[in-house]
Amino acid sequence: MPNLLKKVMNLLIGTEPIVTDMSTHLPKTAAKTQKPLKRPFKKMTERELIQLESDIGAQLFGSVPKGHRREFFNLDLSTWIWYDEWIDATTGQRMNMTIRYEVHENGILKVQEGARYNFIEGRELENFMAAIHLYYERVARELYNTEPHHSHPLQAHTV
Amino acid sequence: MDQASNIDTVQIGYEETAYTSEQPLDSHTLESSPAHAEVQDALLLANMLKRLREQKLDDSTARGLQPYA
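ok -> structure tokens follow
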């Protein structure tokens, strides 16, 4: 489990050295559109791919409110991560919430901070399954440029 | 915290698309589990995502290029 925690924190916070704001060195058009710089000789890492997937995953639940940061991604074969970060309006403190969804043989276990955990069911399970289907479909098309294959569709996920 | 954004409450539109045969992982075959289908489905999706990542990383390594920029 420590390895899993380390991997999640690495994805959420990052461990790469902080660099100075490069936007001042970019052409005005590039800085304005905030398009990523092309790095033609740099190989991608799994972490970068997951981050790109998470950028798509964060959009699955509607627009992210201003001041919020959201991540939703598949970490490994049995783990999905939901992360939300926001500023508390009353205290001004930065808040965050991480939910880990673990795929077990007997169900999807939702693990929250404070040792809260339960197997999700009903509408929540339907929503989770719909979310990961949509996640797979969108990242397959938008990130990996391929048509998604589909597992056996569940009745509960059809609209 | 925007409660409406929580996965517990959010409504997600999902359009079903074509089915193609993919074998579930052999190690997860509990017929009696109430969430058996969901578990199989989730494992399969994660497995397909893993393959996509591996393929992308392999392509990236082979070409020495960043494939998504």
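Chain B touches chain A through 51 residues (CB under 8 Å).
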